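Input sequence (208 aa), recorded before submission:
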Amino acid sequence: MLIIGIAGGTGSGKTTVVRKLTEQLPKGEVAILSQDSYYKDNSHIPPEERQKINFDHPDSIEWDLLIEHIQQLKKGKAIEEPSYSYITCTRNAETKTVLPHKVIIVEGILILTNKKLRDLFDIKLFVYADDDDRLGRVIERDIAERGRTVKKVLERYAAVVKPMHLQFIEPSKSFADIIIPQGGHNKVAIELLSAIIEKYLNQKSDDR
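Predicted structure, token format:
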């Protein structure tokens, strides 16, 4: 099993990189885990207080569960990936069954900040984008998917997203094996990664 970690700032284009990678790889060979699924459940906190939670801080993630799930997949066991609501800031009752695959991609802004998780990755990637480009994508996404106003998005970006990026996410770039500028628009990097993964898959097939 090849485990790939893909990190990068909010709005850097990680999701696009993951999608374009999976499009180029054989169907049924890749499973994707999202760091966002492993946000801690905050149902015990009053709704008005949940909006104040810093979701860009490593403490917001239930790392032990994510690490346990990856270890279970490596052992050939299926896992139940949680699902999270950005509207209520709580974990949903529904889960998603994820079966072991030859390639597991773990995607999220903070995944390279946790050493125990990092050590599980065979390949560590960091998707880089300019701050202005990231902010534009964050505004579009948060309005469309999370019901926020432009004012709320900009306030949160200045108070939380940018400081946390500088404190935790940007420094984690030093742990990456490969840095991908321009996100999903970097065709050369995606083709190179696809070739590396396909070589791994072919080697495993030859070993059988």
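Checked by second reader. The longest helix spans residues 150-172.
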